């Protein structure tokens, strides 16, 4: 009887997840105002906007190949959408207002439905008024599990959505969204860093000998993290959801820009009762302890350490072929303070930086400032055509550049080939850096390409490309 309903009742009486085979995971997500104990003990609760009133939103978990169906019911006082960051969804499901769908008005709804072709760590967030909607807490993880038996053997699989908030002494989120100082500098940096929507307190309880899979997702508006795990040797197994040969982060620090993800395998090699710091040293003079690994007194979980993890199975991505048929293009990102931008075009007008700043803009892509989501494409690809892009950062700032609808290989940085040619949907460029990427344009439509520092995007750092 119970099996016929697709439910299995284990001994403790709770319904287990229904069998997955081909069954669409279906649910409602309601972005609504809520109050959460964001800062923790001793502080009042903070008014936020959260999916289902939660910060972060409920974690969505499906198996690779499953259909996901989510009905957005807008409980906010303004229009919104949901973008499925990193998932290669059909154009109409991509959640970009005006470009892929009309914005969903307050009280309105929209149903997203798509198949999750790639396994990995992804996330979702609105794409309308993003600096404010993410800055108030609208983000959630979307985990696509590897097929049965293909996931690495771990004792716990943890998701950490990293972010920060800008709060006043009353614990309220400051409403200075989209101010021109944030737009023209490093974006909106918060003064309280959060893990899963809370300022970490008391550390992370761990057990000696256990192996964790840690899925790190940077959901911050602007903060870049450079994480080090004192006394531990984490191995990267996936970047932006896609497998890489397991390897230690370069220089012992994991660099994670807004929008980016990293999956780590982390072995608890410390002794029972020990504590180890996890630090973020991205800002050299502002290094701080993010949290701690707090070992239980219990003896190690296993006598013999587990063997090193194997590489995860690859996702079904079309390999770019940079032959004579490929489209080659340079995309120059300019603007911001100290960038030397002389002029750029905004809505057909040539303007200097000072005049741009007066209009709340500060950045240009190939000389054009993007206002809003609609634009003439920067380039057009034939279906299946390979695109090799040289992204040139002509500014004094860092930029995580995100492409919609596609996943690209990172081929080279400043002319030097990358060791893993990793697949990504967001690539972090250092000031003045040049990064070469390539992908096959296999998803038809007009797609966004933009900086994921949300204030940079709002300040003009974006564009559209077309796959015919
Ligand atoms: Cu995560 Cu265009 O966005
Ligand atoms: Cu940027």
3D structure, described in words:
By secondary structure, this protein is mainly β. It has helices at residues 130-135, 180-184, 353-358, 454-458, and strands spanning 25-29, 31-36, 46-51, 60-63, 67-73, 83-85, 109-115, 120-125, 140-145, 156-165, 192-195, 204-206, 211-218, 225-229, 235-239, 242-247, 254-256, 261-267, 275-280, 288-295, 327-335, 343-346, 349-352, 363-365, 368-369, 380-381, 386-393, 399-403, 408-413, 416-417, 423-424, 426-429, 434-440, 445-451, 462-467. Strands 21, 24, 27, 29, 30, 31 and 33 form a 7-stranded mixed sheet that branches. A 6-stranded mixed sheet has the order 11-10-13-18-15-16, with no helix packed on it. A 5-stranded mixed sheet has the order 12-20-19-14-17, with no helix packed on it. A hairpin with a 2-residue loop joins strand 15 and strand 16. The longest helix is centred in the first third of the chain and has 6 residues, at 130-135. The chain is globular, with a radius of gyration of 22 Å. Residues 83, 85, 125, 127, 259, 402, 404, 448, 450, 452 line the site of CU-O-CU linkage.
């Amino acid at each position: 009887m119970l099996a016929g309903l697709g439910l299995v009742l284990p001994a403790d009486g709770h319904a287990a997840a229904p069998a997955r085979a081909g069954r669409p995971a279906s649910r409602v997500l309601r972005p609504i105002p809520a109050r959460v104990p964001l800062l923790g003990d001793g502080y009042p609760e903070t008014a936020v906007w959260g999916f289902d009133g939660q910060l972060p939103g409920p974690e969505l978990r499906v198996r690779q190949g499953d259909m996901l169906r989510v009905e957005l019911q807008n409980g906010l006082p303004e229009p919104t959408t949901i973008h499925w960051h990193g998932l290669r969804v059909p154009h109409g499901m991509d959640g970009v207002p005006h470009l892929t769908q009309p914005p969903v008005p307050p009280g309105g709804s929209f149903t997203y439905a798509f198949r999750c072709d790639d396994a990995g760590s992804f996330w979702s967030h609105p794409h309308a008024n993003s600096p404010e909607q993410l800055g108030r807490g609208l983000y959630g993880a979307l985990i696509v599990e590897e097929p049965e038996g293909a996931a690495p053997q771990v004792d716990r699989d943890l998701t950490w959505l990293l972010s920060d908030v800008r709060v006043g002494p009353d614990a309220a989120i400051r409403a200075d969204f989209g101010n021109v100082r944030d737009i023209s500098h490093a974006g909106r940096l918060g003064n309280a860093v959060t893990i899963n929507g809370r300022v970490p307190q008391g550390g992370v309880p761990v057990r000696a000998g256990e192996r964790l899979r840690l899925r790190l997702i940077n959901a911050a508006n602007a903060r870049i993290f450079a994480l080090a795990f004192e006394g531990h040797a984490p191995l990267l197994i996936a970047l932006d959801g896609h497998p890489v040969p397991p390897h230690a982060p370069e220089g012992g620090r994991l660099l994670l820009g807004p929008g980016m993800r990293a999956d780590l395998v982390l072995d608890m090699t410390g002794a029972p009762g020990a504590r180890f710091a996890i630090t973020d040293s991205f800002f050299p003079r502002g290094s701080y302890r993010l949290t701690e690994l707090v070992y239980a007194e219990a003896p190690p979980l296993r006598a013999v350490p587990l063997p090193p993890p194997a590489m995860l199975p690859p996702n079904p991505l079309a390999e770019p072929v940079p032959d004579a048929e490929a489209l080659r293009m340079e995309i120059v990102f300019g603007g911001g303070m100290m960038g030397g931008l002389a002029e750029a075009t905004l809505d057909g007008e040539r303007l200097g930086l000072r005049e741009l700043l007066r209009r709340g803009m500060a950045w240009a892509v190939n000389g054009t400032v993007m206002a809003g989501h609609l634009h003439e494409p920067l380039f057009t690809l034939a279906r299946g055509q390979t695109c090799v892009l040289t992204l040139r950062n002509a500014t004094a700032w860092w930029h995580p550049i995100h492409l919609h609808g596609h996943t690209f290989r990172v081929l080279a940085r400043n002319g030097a080939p990358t060791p893993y040619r990793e697949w990504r949907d967001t690539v972090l460029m250092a000031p003045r850096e040049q990064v070469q990427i390539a992908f096959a344009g296999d998803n038809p439509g007009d797609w966004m390409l933009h900086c994921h520092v949300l204030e940079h995007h709002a300040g003009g750092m974006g564009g559209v490309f077309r796959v015919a």
